[in-house]
Amino acid sequence: MALEHAILVSLLEQPGSGYELARRFDRSIGRFWTATHQQIYRVLRRMETDGWISVEEVAQDGRPDKKVYSAAAPGRTALAAWLREPVEAETVRHELAVRIRAAAFDDPAALIPEVERHRDGHAALLAHYLYGEGRDFPAPDTLDARQRLQHVVLRGGIEYERMTLAWLDDVLATLRELAADTATPSSDSGTGTAAPTSTSTSTSTD
Amino acid sequence: MALEHAILVSLLEQPGSGYELARRFDRSIGRFWTATHQQIYRVLRRMETDGWISVEEVAQDGRPDKKVYSAAAPGRTALAAWLREPVEAETVRHELAVRIRAAAFDDPAALIPEVERHRDGHAALLAHYLYGEGRDFPAPDTLDARQRLQHVVLRGGIEYERMTLAWLDDVLATLRELAADTATPSSDSGTGTAAPTSTSTSTSTD
DNA sequence: GCTGCCATGTAATCAGTTACATGATTGC
DNA sequence: GCAATCATGTAACTGATTACATGGCAGC
């Protein structure tokens, strides 16, 4: 239910068309909230009928016309009300964690390439964030309110990537150790499928 | 599309009924993948017709009967295939980050209680994780493959909470500074609604 | 008598994804 | 000639959430 609000913030930061918003959702805002262009167009129409945003049709030379949206007063009011609502608990979807636990019932080594791919992706994103930080916030003491809030969100992204990177290295080390363990012992040779099948497990980790 | 697989992992770790699974999804597995009981019952039926899991009806004294599900061979095969598929990019939904950027167009101080509530929640979860780690993994060198993988996932949760806690303190410090800035200056008194309205913003943070 | 736990479900709705469609312009 | 970018949309489907429903037992 927050796509409306994410769009509002983006339009307050800078008015734009549905297409432009879709591009922003592939970049800056998209790090925190994903949306496809179909979704965006649908929500924009709803927001317009609700009076949250206003449209201006802009004719262009050589390019299709576009509808430039900007936040209207009722939208601002709705945003202020939303800020005062309690935050709903974030629904987590961390597929990699599920896969790591799943690896116990298959060959742990099979996961290594995937985790490496992830690791590299996070490393690249961290480098990208750090570059962006140096470019956009070179003098952190001279920033206005908006920039300081953008900066603290970016710092969150940077710390998240740093932490994830370190954790994925930990995961890789664990997987490699387990792969070495199952490879060397003499018993249970062949497929490499390590399935302990112990009935006792009540490690709740609750 | 990974709820099936999360359920499979949970049933491989320990067979159980839909109700028991729903409770697990409020606890251990639920940290990485959320699901309500309605969703779980629906997926369990689909998985059963697909032959991924087998059922055993268990009559109980004083309590309603339950259907105890366990992972079947085709389910294991499907899990192994899934582990070898490329991981789809995680769709992020970080509402708090959107709200922080939104605070620039309203009173930043209005967010402080919410962020504090979040901070406290993450601190409690971190303490809980650390307690669970001490209880379930007291001797990290004597663990089997399954436990070592569970442990590395738990370490990820711990590091995530630590990082989030530190970041939320950073956010709170920023919000409090901004609240102090808008409270003290003589100009633009009254509502405390700080809206810069500068047209120049093209800080892409891409 | 009320709340809470165990245990399973149906129905309606909302959000999000995937596939398909159009059409002009710019650059290789 | 082909792919990519700009720009907007429809339609069908899958996944997730919310609300409602049932019913016995245990403990206060």
TrEMBL record, chains A, B:
Coiled coil: none annotated. Residues 181-206 are annotated as: Disordered. Residues 7-80 form the Transcription regulator PadR N-terminal domain. Pfam families: PadR (PF03551), Vir_act_alpha_C (PF10400). It comes from Kitasatospora purpeofusca. PANTHER family: TRANSCRIPTIONAL REGULATOR YQJI (PTHR43252), TRANSCRIPTIONAL REGULATORY PROTEIN (PTHR43252:SF4). Residues 186-206 have a biased composition (Low complexity). InterPro entries: Tscrpt_reg_PadR_C, Tscrpt_reg_PadR_N, WH-like_DNA-bd_sf, WH_DNA-bd_sf. This is PadR family transcriptional regulator. Transmembrane segments: none annotated. Residues 92-176 form the Transcription regulator PadR C-terminal domain.
